[in-house]
Amino acid sequence: MNAYSPPQDWETVDIAIIGSGFAGLCMAIKLKQAGLADFFIAEQADALGGTWRDNHYPGCACDVQSHVYSFSFAPNPNWSRQFAPQAEIRAYLEDCAQRFGLTPHLRLGMGLQRATFDEQRQRWALHFSNGRRVSARVLVSGMGGLSRPAIPQIPGLESFQGQRFHSQHWDHQYPLQGKRVAVIGTGASAIQFVPQIAPQVAQLALFQRTPPWILPKPDRTLSPAERWAFKHLPWTQKLVRSAIYWALESRVIAFAHRPRLMRLVQRMALRHLRRQVADPALRRSLTPDYTIGCKRILISNDYYPALSRRNVQVVTQDIARVEADGVVTADGVKHPADCIIFGTGFQATEPLPRGLLIGRGGVDIMDSWANGAHAYLGTCVPQFPNLFMIIGPNTGLGHNSMILMIEAQVEYILKALAQMRSQSLATLEVKAGVESLYNARLQQQLKGAIWSTGGCRSWYLDPRTGHNTTLWPGSTWRFRQATASFELKDYLNAGARHDAHPAPQHAPSHSHLHEAATDEKL
User: Fold this and answer.
1) Is a pLDDT exceeding 90 seen at residue 473?
2) Least confident range of 79-88, 289-298, 401-410, 476-485
3) Which element (helix H / strand E) includes 231?
4) N or C terminus of the chain with fewer C-beta within 10 Å?
5) Cα 415 from Cα 335, distance rounded (Å)
6) Largest alpha-carbon pair distance within the chain?
């Protein structure tokens, strides 16, 4: 059989990985370890790192302990703190790429613009920002769910004459010293950067729609003795990692199964608020009116003290409009500003732009997700053969490290690829019925969780349906169990694999798909 020979201006690859954050690098490392070398990692930026490259605002750090926010197969004995700062996490990812020999597989400055599944040729036709066109048998998305900044549509925003930026695109060249700064949003990033900039600015107006619940952050510097032990006695770090993992994992009981237990956590948060905020009026403004855990719980030791500074004002009135030199609230008060910083998070329920992924029959994935994002095991979507998503719908966590979910999904994808090789399958596509039943059961489980019963409106919920399309409704070990085996009967599979293909085209055709018996998994 002749090898596939694309046209002169097309490249060919067996597996294309999109994104070079934790997800993309984990997939690449495991492919290499499995002896699969015909892949590349396409990264739109000029350096690897994903979230930890893009987010570099002052105070940026992980809110999960360092020892579990790293690959299980690549422990880092050199963390400086319990909760690693952004620079260390990015350096860790760069070290992993070097250590596991990924540099030759990296394609920097190569952002995916469009991926179309060609049914006739049973391959993905990929168009990239640098002009390259690639034909790939398998497409793995490591783009993540928190990569598209959410900027609120505020009347008059374009008329603002000062500087403005989102926390993900922090402008370090703009001097904040002595400036009047308006911070819109009180999400996880604002909790970290507000204490860093408050001492520098002349005035800071923090526009708060809903106050977050905040717990103390058990952070500290790791001692030289601890770091020596982690390096020379690796079992000590494994022991610490295991202890942290199970301590975090135990929290899922209250989040997903016994929401009433969150009252105990809420008392801890209220005590933290009382200890750090002396002003009764300010304390009232910072006290949430929903059950803790309904929104993401944040951790900080310096956020409340920052809001108690004389040059900081917490504004709870709705924003009416933005003018050339300030922000006007619904009560008619104008808050002068030289700079607007958005701490408004990301488009979690619409993680991909329209026109990016086009599947079988020419369907855009955003049309497939018209009533909310969904996927089988957060990984596979009907009508999208040979597409595997990492950190897809309903794989997010409210209680533990996302790296655990990433590793479980990567192992599942490896099993799928092994089946394709052993069975000589050209394509795999999850059955619509299997995926639908899986998600129906998943949503049923989510109904009893704190995220659905806590009485708040959060980014976890799709605004169109109210469904939680973001979080996994259980423990990480349960997800590992669900992804531990790959069942071929859950998938449509097309013909025998053939490696000789004509040039990629864009007009869809229809291949013959073979059904197997349905199965259920959740």
Assistant:
1) no
2) 289-298
3) helix 224-232
4) N
5) 57
6) 78
| 357 contact partners, CB below 8 Å, separation of at least 6 | 115, 141, 364, 365, 384, 387
- The CA distances from residue 428 to 84, 118, 485, 516, in Å, are 39, 14, 15, 12
Reported in sequence order, the residue ranges of 301-372 that DSSP labels E, i.e. its strands, are 312-315, 319-323, 326-329, 334-336, 339-342, 357-358
Provide, rounded to the nearest whole percent, the portion of the chain with pLDDT above 70: 89
Cα angle, residue 316 at apex, residues 310 and 317 outer, rounded to 5°: 120
Question: What does the alpha-carbon distance between residue 461 and residue 398 come to, in Å, rounded to a whole number?
Answer: 13
Q: From CA 12, how far away is CA 38, in angstroms rounded?
A: 9
pTM of the model as a whole: 0.89
The one-letter code for the residue type at 335 is H
Average pLDDT on 94-118 reads: 96
The confidence score (pLDDT) of residue 400 equals: 87
CATH 3.50.50.60 assigned to domain 10-147+348-496? The reply is yes
Q: Which CATH number fits domain 157-212+251-342: 3.40.50.720, 1.10.1040.10, 3.50.50.60, 3.30.565.10?
A: 3.50.50.60
Given a cut of 80, whether residue 259 has pLDDT beyond it is no
All CATH 3.50.50.60 domain ranges of the chain, comma separated, are 10-147+348-496, 157-212+251-342
* Count of beta carbons in the 10 Å neighbourhood of residue 391: 24
